[in-house]
Amino acid sequence: MTTRRDFLNGAAGAVAFLGCDLLQSRHGHAQEVRRREVVVNGRRIKTVDVHAHCAFPEANALMGLRVNPEALTMAPERIRQMDAQGIDVEALSINPFWYAAERDLAEKLITLQNEKLAELCAAQPDRFVAFATVAMQHPDLAVKQLEDGVKRLGLRGMSVGTHVNGEELAHPKFHPIWAKAEELGCLVFMHPIATPEFEKRLSGNGGLVNVIGNPLDTTIALSHMIFEGTLDRYPGLKICAAHGGGYLPSYAARSDAGCVTFPDRCDKVVLRKKPTEYLKQLYYDSIIFTPEALKHLISQVGVGQIMLGTDYPFPWTKTAVDHILNTPGLSDADRAAMLGETAQRLLGIRA
């Protein structure tokens, strides 16, 4: 299986998703694609994809990595894909690859990366917004980078990995970052990153490092932020967890039962409410594949906490809009909220 590191380094086959019939003529040349407009009960909805990746070769080069120019950079193909799928706006994030960088290198890399993100969004403000990147391994620097990204560069929040070189996001050293994010009122997009432990245990057939490891990593990160009291300490923190929050919303009642069954294991931090109740103050993307899964997530967290996500350009799904439109039992207001209205509010996107 091609890993994300392989993808960044231009592994063969990493851009197979580009051969979409809608976007290629029979002679192999790219066709113009009519922009799909998404309508709910006669009303045009501005769709916002909260989970879309990009990268900049110059930044990756600072860490000795290459980025595939066709997949993660902003080629015209990306706009054609957005138009075909009915995505009006992408909220761009960059998966962290710099958490091991020393301070000077991290400062240089993040400055370059955030300025590139701001330039890109300024060039096409009707199609892109972006999350600032920060050097989480240097918390004091990360605080400055977040504030600069939001206030000076106009970025709409920040993206983070689910751990920082194996350290949990709930560690007190990261409290200043969460305090600044809460103060700014901005959205934090949390995306899993691989760990050596997962790579060893989940090796073999099936791509389990990604298929199981990624949602499990998110589950662990969110659980620590609940049980270590981070979400109590920063109740205004707005976190959007990738891939529907991992496994946590699907088995959250076990978190409640754990402290009842083994109270001695939950006595280091006294929580203000049941673990499951914290799920309702988090946000989630819609990358959970089936109508049944989407309806279950709604039942656990509320429809107002879920936003459209595609994971572009990683080819998990090209039907994210239809996934929401075709899930039975939703009201028009439910669909409009998930397709774009909640993301517009959180990201400051004009209707």
What report would you give on this structure?
There is one protein chain. The protein is an alpha/beta fold and 351 residues long. 43% of the residues are buried. It has one domain: Metal-dependent hydrolases (TIM Barrel). The N terminus is likely disordered. Strands 6-7-10-11-12-13 form a 6-stranded parallel beta sheet. It is built from 15 helices and 13 strands. The chain starts with a helix and ends with a helix. Helices cover 40% and strands 13% of the residues.
What does this entry show, briefly?
By secondary structure, the chain is α/β, with parallel strands linked by helices. It has 15 helices and 13 strands.
Task: Give the secondary structure arrangement, pairings included.
Blueprint lengths: L3 H5 L29 E3 L2 E3 L2 E6 L3 H6 L13 H10 L3 E5 L9 H21 L4 E3 L1 E2 L5 H14 L4 E5 L1 E2 L2 E2 L6 H10 L2 E5 L4 H6 L6 H4 L1 H15 L2 H4 L4 E4 L11 H9 L13 H4 L4 E3 L5 H11 L4 E2 L12 H6 L6 H16 L4
Parallel strand pairs: 3-4, 4-5, 6-7, 7-10, 10-11, 11-12, 12-13
Antiparallel strand pairs: 1-2, 8-9
